[in-house]
Amino acid sequence: MSKKMHKNGFVEGAAIAYAAIVITKLMGAVYNIPFYSIIGDKGGIIYSYAYSIYTLFLDISTAGIPIAISIVISEYNSLGKFRSKEKAYSLGLFVVVGVSMAAFLFLQIFAKQIGAYFLKDMTEGVTVNEIAYAVRAVSFCLLIVPFLSMKRGYLQGHKFLAPPSHSQVIEQFVRIVFVLCGSYTAIYILKADVTVGVGIALLGAAAGALVAQIYLVHTHRANRDEFSTQGGTEEKAEPTKKILKNIFSHCATLILVSITMSVYNLVDLKMLLLGLHNLSYDDEVAQLVSSIASTWIPKICMIISALSIGLTSSIAPFIAENYAQRNWKSINLKINQAIGTVLAVSLPLGVGMIMFAEPVYRLFYGENLYGGNILQLAIVVNILGSMTTVISMAMQSMNRGKSVCFYTITGVILNTALDLPFIYLFDAIGIPAYLGASAASIVGQLVTMLLLLGSLKKSIQFRFRPMISVIVRTTPAVVVMAGAVALFRYLWPVTQGRGILLLIQFVTYGLVGALVYLPLTYRSKVLSDVFGEKLIESIRNKLGF
Q1: Fewer Cβ atoms within 10 A, N terminus or C terminus of the chain?
Q2: Higher-confidence residue: 522 or 136?
Q3: CA-based angle 309:315:318, to the nearest 5?
């Protein structure tokens, strides 16, 4: 018999979502160590380009509807419109079916043209046909993954955050097993080409999503009484046209923002390829650097951005409910709490990763001339991006979608416009040219974040003081932590290998940092302000402090 679900509050929901996402992202990051060893640099390039295309079309297929559904369902629930919220889910599902099928067919038909877009006149390295094969393989995931997102959005809209979070862990576990076993079997046992191994690995997303979907459907059915359409304030559901308008009013922004970001990532990848090619980098080097920057470095950085993803999945329905009730004080509190959480966790983690960028990259993917440098700037991009993601989702939940669209596109345009100039500038002044694209991303993210914060201040009189207070009180603790870790590193230098000793060292360095950082932030009340006094005291009591 399935365990009964219960609704989760904001802090509890954020904690559940964050725990699940951290687990899944750590699993994802760690599995890349053996996976990259299986497919090698060539396989990594093919996987990178195909997965970038898949991400774009997944955004198109889901079209922001899952998060929009969670917001709409939360609104209808708070107003007692139970029949309308069920109809909204059915209509959203119908739209996703149509768009997913169209995206699948597009990738199947135009796979070669997509490969040609990336490579253009490059004659060395991977081929157009190899990329096309991988694109066609990953397109099958579009027939399954969007429906999992819809089911998660439905449950999150009812404030049941634990099952969707559990499903993420299930999905990632199945995906990893499928990817590693499938690619290893194809390449090393069946002696197939690496392209075939990559194609099988790309299907792992579909396998994981299918199992996770089965879990959520079973959980939903076992708790059907929690989703009753009986009672409430309406005798029948609202008209289809009105519900669709409500859904699309929420997801229109999500569509534009998510697709804009995915398109930007593709353009950024292309600009990096073009810039390095124009600077006479070897084709193989340009392809390798672009795949590292666009796919493999972000997988490491997901350790940082996991928190913002967890917060956005939990903050949306709560902000939507508070906005429907015009509870401005609660909205201010939740947004500041979310931003403070990102700062309190991401700053020390990011600084530590920057200090150990080269050995961190080496642990994951082996020796590489470019990985450590790219990782350092990518961490800065991800910290800024994490804050931007939380602020953006909060504003979208308050029907401030047009502002989010405008500011996001402004940042993306600025980023894209600076890509090639920064690449050429860095090359001219003796800095590795490939870092220019990362520097452009930092500028774009910073501008977007500042514009979003300014809009929040104007629209709801957002209070910056709690956020600034967290920064002021966290910074000294981060500085002291970095000094302590640096001293410990001096006493116990980082090994030059890639084995278990390096992993043990990272764990030890992390423990040293935590033992310094946590007491300092506890005494300055950063932890209690961000996570809540009750949660901190509960943890203290359980640990016996």
Answers
A1: N
A2: 136
A3: 160
Q: How far apart are CA 208 and CA 82, in angstroms?
A: 31
Task: State the virtual CA torsion across 188, 190, 195, 199 in degrees, nearest 10.
Answer: -110
- The span from the CA of 374 to the CA of 354, in Å, is 10
Report the alpha-carbon distance of residue 539 to residue 542 in Å, rounded: 5
Q: Which two tokens stand for residue 380?
A: 């800065």
| CB distance 117 to 49 below 8 Å | no
- Residue among 144, 17, 139, 23 at smallest CA distance from 70: 17
| Contact (Cβ atoms closer than 8 angstroms) between residue 64 and residue 392 | no
Find out whether 336 and 529 touch, Cβ atoms under 8 Å: no
> Can you spell out the DSSP letters for 295-346?
IIHHHHHHHHHHHHHHHHHHHHHHHHHHHHTT-HHHHHHHHHHHHHHHHHHH
pTM, 2 dp: 0.75
pLDDT band of 488, cuts 50, 70, 90: very high
DSSP conformation class of 367: -
- Residue at token pair 């939360």: 74
**How far, CA to CA in Å, does 191 sit from each of 130, 188, 358, 481?**
17, 5, 33, 49
In the chain, the amino acid numbered 290 is S
d(CA 35, CA 104): 26
Average pLDDT over the chain, rounded to an integer: 83
Looking at per-residue confidence, does 375 or 233 come out higher? Answer: 375
Burial class (CB in 10 A: 0-12, 13-18, 19+), 331: buried
| Model confidence at 400: pLDDT above 70 | yes
Residue 100 CA to residue 54 CA, distance in Å, equals 12
**Distance, CA of 71 to CA of 315 (rounded, Å):** 10
Q: What pLDDT shows up at residue 13?
A: 54
**Could you give the CA distance from residue 384 to residue 407 in angstroms, rounded to a whole number?**
14
Provide the pLDDT for residue 1. 39
